[in-house]
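Incident review: delayed structure delivery

Summary: a single-chain prediction request sat in the queue longer than the usual turnaround. Root cause was a stuck worker, restarted by the on-call engineer. No data loss occurred. The affected request and its eventual output are reproduced below so the record is complete for anyone auditing the incident later.

Affected input:
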Amino acid sequence: MRLTICLAAALAMGAASAPIHAKPAKHAEFQLNGTSWTFVDKKGVRVRESVDADGNYISETHAGKHLDHGTAVMKDGKACFTSAMTKDGEVCWTTSPVKVGHSIVTHSSKGEKLKVTRVAYKPLKM
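Output delivered after worker restart:
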């Protein structure tokens, strides 16, 4: 019994003195769900777009006219949108973490370039 207690104590002391190698914290991937954005489309129309908590997006003009809707997901660090209204298929855009009120220039998988501004989340309805 005394041997068991001594071995247990020795193991505990050895474990306490062993160096602990913590893995660096992995940065969470940027999340698109629950965000809203504004931009000017290629036709010069000012657009507001929101992605709800379930990954459904709605785009409308600033005047409230419905433009598009579909699904949005993050894939390999890109924001990928699939419209329910067009046959364009999935279109992915480069992205990075953006705070409300800040803008980024994003590029699509189809070669388009767009400046988008993140705004306070506002759910949109069709």
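Verification: The longest strand covers residues 66-75.
Action items: add queue-age alerting; document worker restart procedure.
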